[in-house]
Amino acid sequence: MSTAAASSTSSAPDFARFAIGFDHRDRARLHALIDEVLDSERWSEAAMVSRFEAAWEAYQAAPAVALSSWAGGALAALGFAGVEGETVLCPSNTFMATPLAALHAGAEVRFVDCNREDLCMSYASFEEQAERHRPRAAILVHIGGHIAFDSERIAAYCREHDIFLLEDCAHAHGASWNGRQAGSYGDAGVYSLYATKTISTGEGGVLVSGRPELIDYARDFRNYGKPGFEVRGLNFRMNEFTAALGLVQIERLPEIVAWKNEVARAHLDPAYPNRLELPEGMTSGLYKYVVFDWLERSTGRVYDELCHRIMGHDVTLPNSDWAAHNHSCVPLYYRPERGDRE
Ligand SMILES: Cc1ncc(COP(=O)(O)O)c(C=O)c1O
Description:
This protein is 36% helix and 13% strand. A 7-stranded mixed beta sheet has the order 1-9-8-5-4-2-3, with helices on both faces. The protein contains 11 helices and 12 strands. By secondary structure, the protein is α/β, with parallel strands linked by helices. The protein has helices at 5-8, 27-40, 47-60, 70-81, 97-104, 123-133, 151-160, 212-221, 240-268, 307-310, 318-325, and strands at 64-67, 87-91, 108-112, 137-141, 164-168, 176-177, 180-181, 188-192, 205-208, 282-283, 289-291, 328-330. The longest helix has 29 residues, at 240-268. Helix 2 (27-40) runs antiparallel to helix 9, helix 3 runs parallel beside helix 9 (240-268) and helix 4 crosses helix 8. It starts with a helix and ends in a 12-residue tail after the last strand. It binds pyridoxal-5'-phosphate (PLP). Pyridoxal-5'-phosphate is lined by residues 69-71, 94-95, 97-98, 141, 168, 170-171, 192, 194, 205.
């Protein structure tokens, strides 16, 4: 199978070379926004963060809190859930950030297996572990940029059994299923804006939630619990310059996701019949383009080292083991016309 679909078609855009998901047509606007911050004499806790949050809310139709990282949002959500001394369920097929956030929030972590079809948490394994461990919270990770296929069933179980559900949306910018976005299934969703993500501010994160009391908690948490110090937070504030970049990025996100999907349909799907197939009505943000082949020329696996092994947990997760050895990611980076650069 061709691993160089990008170069095999002369008219194909050059999407196989790494590029940060930034549209260089946004440079002038970004510079103007940064000038605004410079002129404001307020480089933190001011208007640009509020504008960024409002833009994210407009995109997602849910209240949003900007933070300096995904980690800050996850710690805020888990602190709100009261996981200290309790158990948190977590997939093993994820980045170590996911279980580490639970550990730092004072919880014990128990690992759950994934499905082979979507690489995300399996309802059957989740239910089994939930019955056994009676967790206070669970973290559902939308691995690769699509919505976890079992999201609805896992969320329903959590609602019924009073389990706090945190969605790790670090990969899921632009993902939706029948119009429902990542971050809207559980009590909270947290996005990462780290440098390799679909949209990025270099470092940053956004927490979304339909629960107003959780939004208030996260706002206090990112700022040492100010003003009342009832929340035991730390500094996870996003600064004003980062928020300026975030503002142009969130406004550009729909176009980035549409572009990646168009390129995938036109140039990758014909070359990779053994790809991860989405259910009806689902759009992936295509953080990763996953195929169930072992490709030599790829960006590697989403994860090939499972968290339960890194942490030395004695648990058998056959689908996670299978997934780690039976997929590859085909490079797909946002590269629209870059007239002002080239
Ligand atoms: C699945 C997942 N969760 C969490 C994170 C952590 O994000 P951050 O570095 O913004 O804290 C990442 C980032 O790479 C990730 O891929």
